[in-house]
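Hi, here's the filled form for the chain we discussed.

Project: internal
Contact: R.S.
Residues: 269
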Amino acid sequence: MTISNEKSPGLGEAAAKYLATLPAGKREASQPEVYKFARWYGWEIPFSRLAAPSVAAYVEQLSVSDMDYLKKLDLVRAFLAYAKKAGWSLTNLAAHLKTKKSRPGPAVPSARALPEEVSLTRQRYEELTADLQNLKERSRELVAEMQRAAADKDFRENAPLQAAREERGHVEGRIKELEEALKVATIIEEKKKPAHKSVVGDCIVLHDLASGEELRYKIVDPREVDPARGKISIASPLGKALLGRIGGDLVEIKAPAGKLSYRIIMIER
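And the returned structure, exactly as it came back:
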């Protein structure tokens, strides 16, 4: 059994139909990554032409240093799973979108795996500092919970004690990661004025030469990546291509669909 290309929507159309089924908040979070996936393979190609090997290869252009690396994959997986239910694909291609073998463990990379210096906006620095204080408070609460749970002498079925221990382990790990990151953080002062060559922290307005769409991205450290707000990592293909550029530059990125071409309209610092 096959699905004819005539009956299969193009990737762009499929992405739009899928996003229309989501509630507003989830749609806003999913749209950047789902559209990125569609552009990567070709906005107009029929969904039925997507094959497992090419879907599996999509992972290779993602940066494992992004804190939202696994979240991005989950957003695309949800789109591919929906496509199977919609009848656009005979198989669930989401099963072939696997994490890179070089990235075991949790979605958040350890601080030791990050660059020695971390560039953060002042707002993000303050947010991480607040997160650190909240985590320390939660750690103290968990110690109290463990003490109360330990009062139960039957340790064989002491689920509350085990749950508190596991959560505290995760909390302490995150505390160490934030402390190490904040020690080496460099704060980027944001200024609303034209820039010469783009650097980390800049906002860049692009013109998509294929679709005519105007796009706005902010180049940030992997710790600040937020696709829903247009914040892209300096380690991503587009982030790398935009660094050191000036207004008017033509930026091209290689993708299975061919070259993705953008013109830089404006750079704001």
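Let me know if anything looks off before we file it.
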